[in-house]
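Hi V.,

Quick status before I head out on leave. The structure for the redesign project is tokenized and pasted below; the design run finished overnight.
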């Protein structure tokens, strides 16, 4: 009788485990915050978005940081320490990808991932050089919580052709993660008619892009971000975004708008 009870208990436990595993597989879905910037004018690093990040990474004790974009040539160690200080405010430990022998294994095993801003061309060059572009895309698509800011957001689009950065190094490919089915222009700035400046505006540059490309471009103003849950993409923050499509007039997209069908 005891053996039968034990056997029935083991069977129920096995069934529960199978159910949980199936549920976990079913629930694998993109879970991203794709932010225009890490820092607002006059603010501290990530402070404006920390409440969101606390919820976003609530199941993570440690996150993996990718410092490859190296803003202003900062070292990987300095950049990671800066990020660690910010995440310490929400009790999350940060480890830099450069601290691991295998960058790919680090991504595969990460509880959460953050790719910081800097130079987008350099970031993409290093992702391809270290053979982790596909690994990063797969991790995100399989549900690993992801945060990108600036360059780390640029790579979430189809290509980096609408970045603001100078091409200081030539990556093997402009194609990136494809987490969202359009391109971004982080730090988007509207033309200031009070400035005596004859240079091209962001809007002009994006129109030039659309002379040869059909992919929509979302101008993401500082303080705004995209929340990606599965296939749902929602504009967050207090500001609107500027949407550009080939052969169409630009339009303002209100915060809270669903961009899931934008392609």
């Amino acid at each position: 009788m005891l053996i039968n009870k034990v056997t029935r208990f083991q069977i129920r436990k096995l069934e529960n485990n199978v159910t949980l595993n199936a549920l976990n597989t079913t629930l694998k879905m993109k879970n991203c915050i794709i932010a225009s910037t890490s820092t607002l004018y006059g603010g501290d690093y990530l402070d404006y978005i920390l409440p969101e990040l606390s919820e976003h990474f609530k199941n993570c004790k440690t996150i993996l940081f990718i410092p490859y974009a190296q803003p202003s040539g900062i070292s990987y160690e300095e950049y990671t320490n800066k990020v660690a200080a910010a995440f310490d405010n929400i009790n999350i430990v940060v480890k830099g990808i450069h601290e691991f022998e295998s960058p790919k294994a680090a991504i595969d095993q990460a509880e959460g991932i953050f790719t910081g801003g800097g130079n987008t061309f350099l970031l993409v060059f290093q992702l391809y050089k270290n053979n982790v572009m596909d690994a990063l895309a797969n991790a995100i698509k399989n549900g690993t919580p992801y945060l990108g800011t600036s360059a780390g957001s640029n790579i979430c689009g189809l290509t980096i052709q609408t970045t603001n950065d100078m091409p200081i190094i030539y990556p093997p490919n402009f194609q990136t993660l494809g987490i969202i089915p359009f391109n971004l222009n982080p730090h988007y700035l509207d033309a200031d008619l009070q400035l005596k400046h004859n240079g091209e505006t962001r809007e002009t540059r994006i129109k030039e892009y659309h002379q040869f490309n059909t992919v929509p471009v979302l101008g993401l103003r500082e303080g705004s971000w995209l929340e990606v849950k599965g296939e749902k993409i929602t504009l967050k923050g207090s500001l609107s975004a500027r949407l550009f499509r080939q052969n169409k007039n630009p339009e303002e997209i209100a915060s809270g708008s669903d961009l899931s069908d934008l392609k």
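Above is the designed sequence. The longest helix spans residues 2-26.

G. will cover questions while I'm gone.

Best,
W.
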